[in-house]
Q: What sequence folds into this?
């Protein structure tokens, strides 16, 4: 596909003007959802497509459904995860607000594939347009033969979208992660095997169920196959959600949205649980989960944050770490105390009040908290912090040694 | 407990409250961070030390320390 044409697949159809596509228009545009294809065919198509989950972990959607389908007994539950607690990501709320029927189609396909008799749409409570759109969409389909579907509004919070937290909230109105084992795939909503799948993944599954894996793989550049939603933020003219061909480079996508390499100091990739990267190192990076994983980066939830050359990476990092510390579920000591210590130390460094041991402390706490919590929140935050120390190394040292920011007129950065 | 399969120590982080008794009992196996939360080895526990490991498990006031077979699926 030529560079200048925006890709429209998940987001094809009427303009993204804040109004959801109605069911009649959705069916007229895409055709009815195929219902007689067997669960094994759908799973095989998803496996062949190579579609990876879009919630952040990037696990193969087909393999995930297959593992659940092969569990042997008990009816399952499908949770469509639209919590989107990642503040710098907007793709799920945009998808739900404009194409609710794609998400519901995907959930129905998933329910048939894994043997589920119940669907829960778990939508972030602050995403009002998405909640309205998904709730109305269910009513538009009330005559349909399908499992019962209900909307559960997730509480506001970064952690609320973690799979075990979502299940915990649906069960007990407590959006804190639980210890695993048992995994939610074995013991989830109402103690039943549960598939927790991101809404974007379900949207793609709905299209692959109609048009097949070769349709999905027809798009893509530089050997990558498929498309994905990304959220661009920071020093771009057109921030927001875009649908891209996998394999497009970060530079291609950024330039198309009005950014330039010269005005971009550094980039956050994947989410606040992802990593910083130097602009020059990633401007030619193909945006593809597999390629990025090989380079030690994460596609995550498709978040791309471009830090301006006028802004300070130390201040931005301090802001992110303060957010991550505040958003801890507060259940696990290493996370609560470790992230708290990291956040305090980065704040001191950012404001020119670094203690003598702060940099060493940050390095120690960052390596110590990995793997020592019920969920991966501390791991994600540690990864972000470790990458900050590398990418913004000179600025950190300048702040510590001189008590000042080396960037003249650095804008105060608020990323949370 | 049959020691045929290798066993590892694992912490239930939600239950753990940082008493640190496990680290006090087995200081060369279980480290404690500055808030007295444990750092347990990933490697399996030597068979000769399983009794000591079990004693640490039994002494945790929050029943947060677990001695279990290393899972085959590689989960942490």
A:
């Amino acid at each position: 596909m030529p560079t200048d044409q925006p890709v429209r697949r998940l987001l094809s159809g009427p303009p993204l003007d804040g109004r959801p596509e109605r069911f009649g228009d959705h069916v007229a545009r895409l055709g009815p959802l195929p219902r007689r294809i067997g669960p094994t065919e759908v799973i095989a198509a998803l496996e062949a497509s190579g579609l990876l989950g879009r919630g952040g972990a990037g696990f193969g959607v087909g393999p995930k459904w297959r593992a659940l389908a092969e569990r042997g007994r008990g009816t399952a539950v499908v949770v469509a995860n639209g919590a989107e607690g990642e503040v710098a990501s907007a793709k799920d709320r945009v998808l739900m607000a404009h194409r609710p029927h794609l998400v519901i189609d995907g959930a129905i396909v998933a329910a048939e594939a894994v043997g589920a008799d119940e669907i829960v749409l778990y939508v972030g409570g602050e995403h009002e347009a998405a909640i309205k759109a998904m709730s109305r969409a269910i009513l538009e389909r009330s005559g349909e033969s399908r499992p019962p579907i209900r909307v559960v509004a997730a509480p506001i919070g970064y952690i609320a979208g973690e799979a075990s937290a979502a299940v915990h909230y649906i069960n007990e109105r407590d959006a804190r992660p639980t210890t695993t084992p048992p995994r939610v795939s074995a013991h989830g909503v109402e103690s039943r095997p549960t598939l927790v799948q991101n809404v974007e993944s379900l949207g793609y599954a709905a299209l692959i169920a109609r048009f097949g894996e070769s349709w999905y793989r027809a798009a893509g550049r530089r050997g990558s196959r498929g498309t994905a939603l990304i959220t661009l933020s920071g020093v771009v003219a057109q921030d927001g959600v875009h649908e891209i061909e996998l394999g497009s480079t970060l530079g291609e996508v950024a330039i198309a949205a009005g950014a330039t390499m010269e005005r971009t100091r550094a980039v956050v990739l994947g989410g606040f649980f992802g990593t910083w990267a130097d602009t020059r190192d990633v401007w030619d990076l193909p945006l593809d989960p597999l390629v990025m994983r090989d380079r030690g980066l994460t596609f995550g939830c498709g978040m791309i944050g471009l830090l301006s050359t006028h802004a300070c990476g130390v201040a931005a990092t301090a802001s992110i770490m303060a957010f991550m510390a505040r958003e801890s579920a507060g259940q696990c000591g290493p996370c609560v105390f470790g992230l708290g210590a990291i956040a305090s130390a980065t704040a001191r460094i950012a404001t020119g009040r670094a203690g003598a041991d702060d940099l060493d402390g940050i390095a120690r706490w960052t390596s110590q908290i990995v793997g020592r919590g019920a969920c991966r929140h501390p791991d994600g935050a540690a990864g972000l912090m470790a990458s900050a120390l590398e990418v913004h190394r000179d600025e950190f040292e300048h702040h510590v040694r001189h008590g000042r920011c080396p960037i003249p007129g650095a804008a105060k950065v608020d990323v949370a | 407990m049959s020691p045929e399969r290798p066993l590892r120590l694992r912490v239930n982080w939600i239950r753990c409250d940082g008493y640190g008794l496990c680290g006090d009992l087995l200081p060369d196996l279980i480290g404690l961070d500055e808030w007295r939360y444990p750092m347990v080895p990933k490697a399996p526990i030597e068979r000769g030390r399983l009794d000591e490991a079990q004693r640490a498990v039994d002494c945790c006031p929050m029943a947060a320390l677990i001695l279990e077979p290393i899972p085959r699926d590689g989960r942490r």
Observations:
- Strands of chain B lie at 7-11, 31-32, 38-39, 65-69.
- The longest strand of chain B covers residues 7-11.
- Chain B has a mean pLDDT of 94.
